[in-house]
C-alpha cells in the first residue's frame, strides 16, 4: 500500500514525460501500480479540482494568478494536444532566468498538484503545464493570435486584477515589457551635456491588452503615454520620474 503523497509524486514524474520504466526504477513502485494510478487517480485529479468551472469551491491564489495572467496575455498560449486535455505554455527568454523561475513558481501556486516542465527552444524556454481546465482559468483562450480577436477579462478575473494590480502589471512587463535607460542632451552654460534617465516600455499588438495595461496603470497612479512605431501605437511608455519610481518599487527590471 502506498500513501497519497507517494502516488502523486510518481504521477508527477510521469507527467514530466518520464517513462513508466524510469519512474518504476527510481521509486521502486511497479509499473502496473503506476499504470493503475494513471487510470484511477489522474483523471480524478484533473477533473475534480477546477477552480472556476464549479467542481472546486476555491478561487485561484490571487497574487500568483494575477502575475500568471499578465505572462499569459503577453507570451502565453493554451493548446490542446492530440491526447486530450490542455497545455499552458509561457515563452520566457533565456536572458532572464529569474523570470523563468518566477513563471514556474506562479504556475505551481495556481495549480499546486500539477507538474510543470521546461522545454528548451532557440533563445527561450517554454514553461509548460498540462491540465484539463486551463481554458477555465484563461477564458481568453481561442483560435488564432490574440491581437486578432477580442481580449476581455471575465468579471472574476477583473476582481483579481483589482485586488493585485501590481502583480498583473509585473506579469505584463515581464512578458512584453522592459526597463531601459534612455539618454538625451541639453545645452547648459553653452556646453552640451548628456543626461540619462530610466524608462519602462510595454509593447503589444492587441489594443485590448494595451488598454488592460494602461487602465491598471491608471488605478495605481502611474502616468503613461502612447508612443508610435511608424503609424501603429503599439508602445506604452512610462517616463515621468515619480511614475518610474513607483514602477521600480513594485516591478523593477527583468532578471
Which homologous superfamily in CATH is the superfamily of the largest domain?
Homing endonucleases
Number of separate strands: 8
- The oligomeric state of the chains shown is single chain
How much is the average pLDDT? Answer: 84
* Helical stretch tally: 11
Strand order of the largest sheet: 1-2-4-3
CATH architecture designation of the largest domain: Roll
- β-strand percent reads 15-25%
What number of structural domains do the residues give?
Answer: 3
Question: In words, what does this structure look like?
Answer:
With 255 residues, this protein is of the alpha+beta class. The protein folds into 3 domains: 4-47; 62-150, Endonuclease I-creI, CATH 3.10.28.10; 174-250, Endonuclease I-creI (Roll). Helix content is 44%, strand content 24%. The protein is built from 11 helices and 8 strands. It has helices at 4-15, 20-27, 31-40, 42-47, 62-75, 97-110, 134-137, 155-163, 165-176, 207-220, 241-250; strands spanning 76-79, 86-93, 116-120, 124-131, 177-188, 191-203, 225-229, 232-238. The strands form 2 sheets. The protein has a 4-stranded antiparallel beta sheet. It has a 4-stranded antiparallel beta sheet with strand order 5-6-8-7. Strand 5 and strand 6 (191-203) form a beta hairpin. The longest helix is centred in the N-terminal third of the chain and has 14 residues, at 62-75. The protein is elongated and about 85 Å long. Residues 41-49 have low confidence and may be disordered.
